[in-house]
Amino acid sequence: xxxxxxxxxxxxxRECSTSYIHVLRxxxxxxxxxxxRDFQHQRLHRAKVxxxxxxxVYPPSDEGAGSLGPSTRxxxxxxxxxSLGRECSGQPAKQPSANISQEGLPKxxxxxxxxxxxxxxxxxxxxxxxxxxxxxILSCLGVDRLELTVRSHxxxxxxxxxxxxxxxxxILWSCLREFRPLSLGLFPVRLRGLWPLAVVLCCASFPLxxxxxxxxxxWFPFEPDASWASNLEHSLSVxxxxxxxxxxxxxxxxxxxxxxxxxxxxxxxxxxxxMPTPAAVAVSSVVFASCxxxxxxxxxxxxxxxxxxxxxxxxxxxxxxxxxHSAWNMYVLVTLVLRxx
Length: 341
Prior knowledge:
The structure is a single chain. With 341 residues, the protein is mainly alpha-helical. The chain has 11 helices and no strands. The chain has 2 domains: 50-97, no CATH class; 112-338, no CATH class. It has helices spanning 2-57, 78-89, 112-141, 150-176, 195-203, 206-219, 227-237, 241-271, 277-290, 298-315, 319-338. Helix 3 runs antiparallel to helix 4 (150-176), helix 6 runs antiparallel to helix 10 and helix 10 packs antiparallel against helix 11 (319-338).
């Protein structure tokens, strides 16, 4: 009897322990689920409290009601303002792209002080080379410039333009190298594209510019240095092939490269950052015409400056204005030889 009671107690204990385990396990699962929910609720609550505190210190921006920090619209840096706006609105970050203005000209990273520095150095070099260094060298050599032969005059002009080309490119490189202008798309040179068609179309304006040049000679008859054209015409009419090759090299290679680099590649692009593009074209063309220091050529060169600037802006390439400049110079040489009288 006692053994039966003992077995019955053991059986009841096993049943109780089994039922306790079955009851305990679900309760443990429920406890774990409830614990996770409490933890997530507490974390969301802490984030909400932190967000309210931050919103009290930093008013929400215009990018959204939940964004924190100062208003991105008032940030002084446009690039950082756009980046902050994208971060606050949850948009993906914008990939960096070329710094191109609305008119297609690349935006320069330098200020007007740098523009003044480069143009001043270039103008001083232009004047010093032609009016100080060359006469000084000829004087030291005992050479009278008026007694030079036709071929010697041509070689002298070639040396002047070569030195001006080297000095101009050196000034641009030394003053702008810290900005790495080529990596920013400045001074663009591209072989591909439809720019040859633009060059051909712009060449159709040469007769009009030539007519304007003839009218300017009548409007400004008293030119201090009016003998240059007759001297050049005489030099070409001699028929010396060395003289002709030298002059054509000067007007078709040297002068167009350094003039377009300084006036279109640098000056026009720099001015376009601080004024509308038409105003930048006008100002750079006036400077281009004025730097030739002759009243008879001011108006035609002003028109040519506008044409060269227009084709540079449309093609985003320095090769078309260089070729146009070269074609115009050769057009002048040919008309000087072929024009009667």
